[in-house]
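Mods, move this if it's the wrong board.
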Amino acid sequence: EWIYQLAHGKTAIERSDAALNLVPENVAKSDEVFNALRTAATTDPFWAVRLHALTSLTRYADSTSHSIAEVLGSILEHDTYPDVRAQAAETLGTHAKKEYAEPILLRVIEKDSSYQVVGASLMALWYFDPARANEYALSYLKTTTPRDRMRQAAINVLEQSKNHQTLDKLVMLINQHDVPRRTRYGLIRSIGPLVSVDSAEVYQVLWNL
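Not the wrong board. Structure tokens:
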């Protein structure tokens, strides 16, 4: 029933509802379910249906031997809607091998027009090449974008690497006066765990705030 509704529902709401209900808890895993979700995630005309189908598809990939790496790569590079591409990027970081995922992520970081997608790809890249992800992140700390999304994404990546270089860069940024409130909250969250790097500096910075 859900498979038929996903493919033939007249409205996006009907198809989205089907996609959200096609999960392992409700429908036993099978090639038919997997293929239906894969088709919807890549070809449905409405972005929310594609996003919901991709989310459910990931659930089945987690519980079967099916690989979704190529589906994710295709969506990340070709889907027209940023939210869908960003979701594909996030999932690619945990559902693909380095030799397949890394070249795609690098292309997206260099070329995608959406800061949301670039940020998600940057975080996914960290799983495969932390040093390169950190290099990108450090460069993005100097970037001003709408709603400061790229600096926030860069901070999320850098906080994964607990070293003095990261601490120094984050401290330098939080001491600037033009940092938006949301970014500043992210910096505080990221600096706190770096007590293992230099507890005296971290406590001094947080005290001064």
